[in-house]
């Protein structure tokens, strides 16, 4: 039978099949962080079950971490306890932890790829919905709940129903100023936040083939925002080149051997999907959201739709926007460039190229938060720190930061924030805060103008 990329990886990991029931799936890598691991560790302890394969687990501290003075004790009590608990659990169970201040520390979905931990053909899980990011490498990667985290600790396996298969084809040529973030915001705005529910999504077509690994990660990251369990892209030369030479990537002959296998990881011609969509690259423009779910997106120069339903109207009320309104020229006081969606070096290169020689508008607080210590080091090495400082942007230390209000970085009540993160839910960035999702370029242009602006007119 013809197989999809997803089938090939899934089938290679099935340990046991229960007739007419779920599969027992082997998990290659288990990533953990401070928010969703403590209860799972406690459950194991209570039942006196050891962690089965600590070598296949990697831990980092990211959600509760401050982004200033990371060398000092964490001030906030809840966060401090949460981080202490992670350290203790990792120590007791022989799990590698890249804690605060470690040169490999950062957001879980940024560090695993950059360290070469994420590799094609793997199954990767984490108690975190944006685990879908790793699908960019042609892996089956998805978020799990805390009880499943305990299951994986105990057995390195998961009991799972096989999801249905969805493919999104995107072909053509992207317009100038359209970034991978715009691509995924466009897809979600077109297909809706439930279009992927029950499915695992493969992204196919020349647009993804021509995209960098970092761009592919941005796209796969937000698969969950259309309801999909995860998203994945077939590995190719771009993938192999990215992995080669990274800290935990296979070396020399082993790399060659793995590459030969990785090359077989693609969807057979004529393989059948349960659902399929085809979209055109030419239709995509820079995108922004106007509501409180990531599907409420329009092109930057577009107008908020009219005749909206009740829940969308409630959303608009929260955002203090009106039907039919354009967001161009809306004053914005906060910009956040970071999160596991857009905090990698390419994102910051794009921002730096745009703001170089310019100054942020006076009303704007522009926050730049690299996804990892390694990205922070790249910013220094490439002279981008200076560009940000000269433009009046505030550079912080790595972490989830203002993506969600679990640490000190919060957007004040009632304020708009043009954010490169992935969720614009009510209160996501702080109680009463209003999030407008966009690409790093749109965020940078907003910071310079002090308001939402059609920057495409100024691109050369
Ligand atoms: C805290 C964590 C469980 C959560 C997630 O699962 O995604 C967070 O990372 C988020 O982005 O909302
Ligand atoms: S950066 Fe945001 S979306 Fe990503 S893991 Fe952290 S909180 Fe979740």
Summary tags:
single chain; 460 residues; alpha/beta; Aconitase, domain 3; Aconitase, Domain 2; 3 domains; 5-stranded parallel sheet; globular; binds iron/sulfur cluster; 3-isopropylmalate dehydratase
Give a written overview of the molecule.
This is 3-isopropylmalate dehydratase. Catalyzes the isomerization between 2-isopropylmalate and 3-isopropylmalate, via the formation of 2-isopropylmaleate. Pathway: Amino-acid biosynthesis; L-leucine biosynthesis; L-leucine from 3-methyl-2-oxobutanoate: step 2/4. The protein is an alpha/beta fold and 460 residues long. It has 3 domains: 11-161, Aconitase, domain 3 (2-Layer Sandwich), CATH 3.30.499; 163-285, Aconitase, Domain 2 (3-Layer(aba) Sandwich), CATH 3.40.1060; 287-458, Aconitase, domain 3 (2-Layer Sandwich), CATH 3.30.499. The protein has 15 helices and 19 strands. It has helices spanning 5-13, 38-46, 77-92, 108-114, 146-155, 180-191, 206-209, 213-221, 237-243, 252-262, 310-319, 345-355, 373-381, 384-390, 440-449, and strands spanning 14-17, 23-26, 29-32, 57-60, 96-98, 123-126, 140-143, 157-160, 164-171, 199-204, 230-232, 275-280, 287-289, 297-299, 334-337, 365-368, 394-395, 416-419, 434-437. The strands form 5 sheets. Strands 5-4-3-6-7 form a 5-stranded parallel beta sheet. Strand 4, helix 3 and strand 5 form a beta-alpha-beta unit. Helix 12 (345-355) packs parallel to helix 15. The protein is globular. The chain starts with a helix and ends in an 11-residue tail after the last helix. Iron/sulfur cluster is lined by residues 62-63, 107, 128, 130, 339-340, 400, 403-404, 421-422. Iron/sulfur cluster binds at residues 62-63, 107, 128, 130, 339-340, 400, 403-404, 421-422.
């Amino acid at each position: 039978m013809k197989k999809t990329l997803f089938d090939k990886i899934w089938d290679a990991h099935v340990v046991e099949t229960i007739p007419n029931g779920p599969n027992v799936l082997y998990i290659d890598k288990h990533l953990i962080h401070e928010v969703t691991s403590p209860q799972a560790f406690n459950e194991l302890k209570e039942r006196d079950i050891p962690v089965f394969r600590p070598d296949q687990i990697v831990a980092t501290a990211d959600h509760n971490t401050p982004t200033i003075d990371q060398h000092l004790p964490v001030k906030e009590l809840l966060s401090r306890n949460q981080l202490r608990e992670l350290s203790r659990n990792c120590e007791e169970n022989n799990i590698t932890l890249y804690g605060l201040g470690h040169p490999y520390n950062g957001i879980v979905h940024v560090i695993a790829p950059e360290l070469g931990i994420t590799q094609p053909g793997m199954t990767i899980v984490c108690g975190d919905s944006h685990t879908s990011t790793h699908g960019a490498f042609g892996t089956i990667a998805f978020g799990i709940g805390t009880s499943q985290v305990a299951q994986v600790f105990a057995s390195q396996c998961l009991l799972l129903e096989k999801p249905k298969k969805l493919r999104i084809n995107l072909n053509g040529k992207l317009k100038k100023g359209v970034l991978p973030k715009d691509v995924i915001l466009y897809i979600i705005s077109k297909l809706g936040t439930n279009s992927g529910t029950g499915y695992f999504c493969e992204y196919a077509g020349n647009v993804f083939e021509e995209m960098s690994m970092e761009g592919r990660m941005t796209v796969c990251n937000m698969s969950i925002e259309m309801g999909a369990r995860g998203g994945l892209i077939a590995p190719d030369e771009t993938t192999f080149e990215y992995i080669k030479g990274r800290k935990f990537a296979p070396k020399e002959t082993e790399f060659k051997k793995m590459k030969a296998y990785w090359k077989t990881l693609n969807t057979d011609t004529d393989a059948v999907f349960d659902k399929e969509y085809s979209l055109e690259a030419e239709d995509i423009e820079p995108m922004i959201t106007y509501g409180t779910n990531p599907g409420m997106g329009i092109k930057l120069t577009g107008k908020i739709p009219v005749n909206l339903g009740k829940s969308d109207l409630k959303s608009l009320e929260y955002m203090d926007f009106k039907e039919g309104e354009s967001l161009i020229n809306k004053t914005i006081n906060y910009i956040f460039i970071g999160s596991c969606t857009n905090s990698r070096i390419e994102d910051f290169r794009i921002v730096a190229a745009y703001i170089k020689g310019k100054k942020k508008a006076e009303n704007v607080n522009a926050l730049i938060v690299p996804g990892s210590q390694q990205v922070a080091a790249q910013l220094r090495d490439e002279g981008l720190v200076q560009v940000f400082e000269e433009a009046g942007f505030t550079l912080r230390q790595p972490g989830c930061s203002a993506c969600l209000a679990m640490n000190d970085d919060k957007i004040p009540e009632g304020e708009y924030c043009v954010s490169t993160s992935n969720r614009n839910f009510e209160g996501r960035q702080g109680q009463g805060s209003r999030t407008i999702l966009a690409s790093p370029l749109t965020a940078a242009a907003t910071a310079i103008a002090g308001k939402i602006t059609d920057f495409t007119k100024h691109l050369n």
